[in-house]
Write the structure tokens for this entry.
Amino acid sequence: MQAKSKSVVVTGATSGIGYSVCELLLQNGFKVIGVGRSKENCEAAGKRLIEKCPEGEIVFFYGDMVHRQEVFRIASDIRQHLHESSNDELYALINNAGCVRSKYMTSNEGYEHQFALNHLAGFILTHELLPFLIRAKGRILFTSSASHKMMRMRWKDLMFEKGYNPLLAYKQSKLCNMLFAYSLNEMYRDKGIAAYGVDPGLVNTSIGNKNTGLIVDLVWSIRRRFGVSPDEPAKTYLMLCTADTPPKELYFKSLKPARYSSQVNKENADRLLAISEQLCNIRFGCPKS
Ligand SMILES: NC(=O)c1ccc[n+]([C@@H]2O[C@H](COP(=O)([O-])OP(=O)(O)OC[C@H]3O[C@@H](n4cnc5c(N)ncnc54)[C@H](OP(=O)(O)O)[C@@H]3O)[C@@H](O)[C@H]2O)c1
């Protein structure tokens, strides 16, 4: 697969897994469109990436993707950029930005942070960039997690308003990634789109040290030391972006297909799709029956 001049959007590109994915994509000739939370972190990441890959093409867009309107604004800026520089084509979208919270926090719309960022932000961005992805017969990747396997959807209290359990809210958001990838394959495989969930394993990043309480911060500071470098899972993202024929499986870990939860099924995927559309005020094509 010739990567030259193929554009890829990576969210959460300023640190951890997203940053390593950007670096690997640049080394392999992709044009990278990074998305981050703050101007400062985007500028710092962009500078480091260009120092490492002086020939690489990278541009950053930033905003707090917890908030729905910010995601729409970023998407609109990316669409304009793709129009001007990439022939209205997007080869891959990597929905990777994510957070961990230890207390109940909400977006401007009143949506719980982990649900809003880990699921809805990628949901909106995918919708807004879909025509560009379809033109390129593109791939859509979600950073999920093995923790999705220990969770069922809480349909009666999706955002944990009645008693917040941060760990369950996180696991559910990673199950949402799998369910949405499942829906995208159902709806758009015949248009050449392929969607995947990636389990990066335990990775040594600072996710549990950002905007979390003292205890989570301390526990994660110890736990992360047992994690692999983000350069390890980045190889799986590259493989999924470069495979000549898009793999048929839904879920990947360490370059190979992996088993996923039986909760990842059509009934749950359809239900999540309908609720998310309503929450975001957008509409995907009707899933095939
Ligand atoms: N680390 C692991 O062991 C592990 C395991 C399974 C799955 N994951 C998943 O991997 C993904 C990446 O996490 P990571 O471990 O690489 O952590 P990380 O280093 O903290 O990366 C998270 C990225 O998302 C960005 N981000 C955070 N809040 C944002 C917001 N409100 N708006 C826009 N961007 C925002 C961060 O930007 P700032 O730094 O500027 O906030 C950063 O670029 C997440 O989806 C996570 O759930 C991680």
